[in-house]
Fold this sequence. Notes:
The chain has 291 residues and is α+β, with helices and mostly antiparallel strands. 45% of the residues lie in helices and 19% in strands. Strands 1, 2, 3, 4 and 5 form a 5-stranded antiparallel β-sheet that branches. The chain has a 5-stranded mixed β-sheet with strand order 6-8-7-9-10.
Amino acid sequence: MPWLIAVLCLMMLSAPAQQRQRTARAGPALSKIAIENYLRRLELWAPQVQIRIDDPQPFIPGLYRLEVHLTAGAASKDVTYYVSADGKTLIRGNAYELNRSPFQKELDALKLQYQPSFGPANAPLTLVVFSDFECPVCREEAQELRAKVRAEFPKDVRVAFFDFPLESIHPWAKPAAIAGRCVYHQNGPAFWDYFDWIYEHQPEIKVDNLKTKVMEWAFGTRLDTAQFSQCLDSRAMASEVDAEVATGRKLGVDSTPTNFLNGRRLVGDVPWPNLSQIFKLELELAKQPGK
């Protein structure tokens, strides 16, 4: 049967190609223990730092992305390396795909669907703010952003908020963040009233008077105060705050304020004249061909 012989020949010829495809998808053969030891020496990571290494993923022909996850107590950080297809060369640094934003990794991590924001949803610039309600520097930045973004860039900048309470030094920051999420879920626009109020009254707030003061504020709003009080007591929104913190840690946030402008990291309190200039520069860049 000539047809059967032909089929068998085709199967024999295609097997090596299929095997090569499987090998390519699998990536280079690597010893994760050897890589961990090498990286500990390279980066001088202490023994208490726990390291988890993902399987290499295809990046470009001949090069694989290697994600390394670090944890030490409550802190965590992700670091990206690249490894050659033969498994012999490790590359430290950033690699960029020219047809995508240089901050695509950050943009992909910053999901804003359930985050409070003000400014046009279709604004060309989005400033994502990781902040702490007990942080004095965050207070200064928040008051400036609220007053000046809307006045000077009403159509061009959207501001979105992520909680990042620094619990080790700010004991009432997480309960305040939970309260903010309770407000946001009950009445989205009222979150910004809460935001403005809590930063304005930050110096007066203590661990033992937080709920009393927050409830005093709530009685003057359109909130259902009974529902709000129950939300506070149940800590129902704690998991959402934890998720916000996890997003920040994934992006390497370890202090507040830390902001991302269209994915570009801006650490610390950037003076308004400087931030305004950055906004203007980014707006000009957005007009360039290919943007």
